[in-house]
Each structure stands twice: as C-alpha cells, then as structure tokens.
Amino acid sequence: MERALELGPRLPIASTLHHLIGQASREMVSPDSARNRERRAGGGGSGDASIVFFRAEDLRERKLYEESLKWYRDAVNADPAFALAYAGMGDSLYQLGSNAEAISSMERALELGPRLPIVPTLHYMTGEALSELGRHQEAEQHYESALRAWPNFKEALNSLARLLLDQEHYEDALERYRALERIEPENADIHLQIGVALFKAGRVEEALGSFEHALSLNPTLEPALNYREQARRSMMKQSEGVQ
C-alpha cells in the first residue's frame, strides 16, 4: 500500500510551540504573576524546579536530548506537578526513539496541565508515538483530541488521514484530506493523497481528476504520474469490459 503524505523528520515541540512553553513557564513561575497561583493547574513549576527546567529546555532546543533528560527529571523530582517539564521530557524521549516512555511522560503532562496551550501538540505527539508502536486505535483517539482543540492542526489531520488510509478506512481518510485541502488548496501532495484515497475506494474517475490536479500544481510529482497511469489503465479496462 502506498504511504500517505509523509511528515518528514520527527516534529519536536521545540519546532512548533517551544516559544509557548517558555512564555507560559515564565508567566507561571513569576512571583508577582496571578497565574502563579494556578500553576499546578496550568503547568508551571516552583522556583527551583523552574531554574532546572529552563536548563533542560536549553539543552533540548539544541537537540541534546540525552543531556536534557537528567534536568527534566530533576525538575519533576523538585515539583512532581510540573506539567511542562513532563512535556519537554516526553519530547526528548520521543526524539530518542523511547516511545513507550515518551507516551507516559506526555500523558502525565496532559493529566497535570489540561489548560496548557500546547495540549494539541501533546496529543499529536502522543498519537505519533502510539502509531509507531502499532497502537493505532489509541493513536487515532489522540489525533482526534488534538483536532478538537485545534481543528486546523495540519500535522494532526495529516497523521490521522495517513493512519486511516493505511487501515483501509478510505472514506474517513478522504474526509480528513478534504479538510487539509481547505487549509492548503494549492498543495499538490494533498491532492495526490485525495486521489490515492479515491482510487483505493474504487472511485477511479474522481481519483484521476485529483491526480491531474496534483500534476497541474507540480508537474514532476512522480507518485501522481504513476497513479495517473494506473487510473487511466483501470478506466480503459472498465470501458473494454462494458463493450
């Protein structure tokens, strides 16, 4: 089965909402901040834990994931309710390929910080880790949670569509790819994946139109060229069968 639109390298929190982690942390741990009084509900840590946390964040941002883990663990030891530290730890573990541990850390962050601005990203990354472990139903639930919080979250839409396509839920996958199309109507890869879902669902003529659309946006898109040829051959066979 053809893979759906690939996301490329692992997507660390640092590359998506890292600035929100830092901003939220500074606000939550500031002594004169009203939000400090709600830090346990919002994710901020105590003073000592926050100092350690910012050291861990610096290391993670520089992709020194192994080194960052010690500091994150020190942060949560100093403040067991420090949701943002669990989030950062989960990302570092994910980048290192320790998916089971990453899932545990990110789910703990979600439990401790249900109002954090990075909740959609945490659900998305938990879904990625679960998907890579073959735990598809749980992954789907986390992708859906991410999209409930952020309906236009492109990475979550794409990963959910890819998962559904791989599981042969073609109409459901198509629905998610259509949502992506509304966000990025000029993205050739999305039109390609719409075509793939249509083709595998047996809607060959519609699929051909999507492949043609993809090629009008990117004439050198090789998978679209290959699928267009398959769709044309399939339609010719259908026509010959009717005759």
Structure in words:
This protein has a domain of 58 residues. The longest helix has 21 residues. It starts with 12 loop residues before the first helix and ends with a helix. The protein is mainly α and 243 residues long.
Characterize this entry briefly.
This protein has 243 residues and is mostly helical.
Total E-strand runs: 0
Amino-to-carboxy terminus distance: 31 Å
The helix fraction, in percent, is: over 70%
Largest sheet: none
Overall outline: elongated
Low confidence ranges: 1-20, 29-42
Radius of gyration: 22 Å
Arithmetic mean of pLDDT: 85
Query: Could you tell me the strand content as a percent range?
Result: under 5%
Estimated structural class: mainly alpha
Number of helices: 14
Order of helices and strands: HHHHHHHHHHHHHH
Protein traits:
mainly alpha; 14 helices; elongated
Give the helix/strand layout.
Elements: H1 13-16, H2 18-29, H3 39-42, H4 47-61, H5 65-78, H6 83-95, H7 99-112, H8 119-132, H9 136-149, H10 154-166, H11 170-183, H12 188-200, H13 204-217, H14 222-242
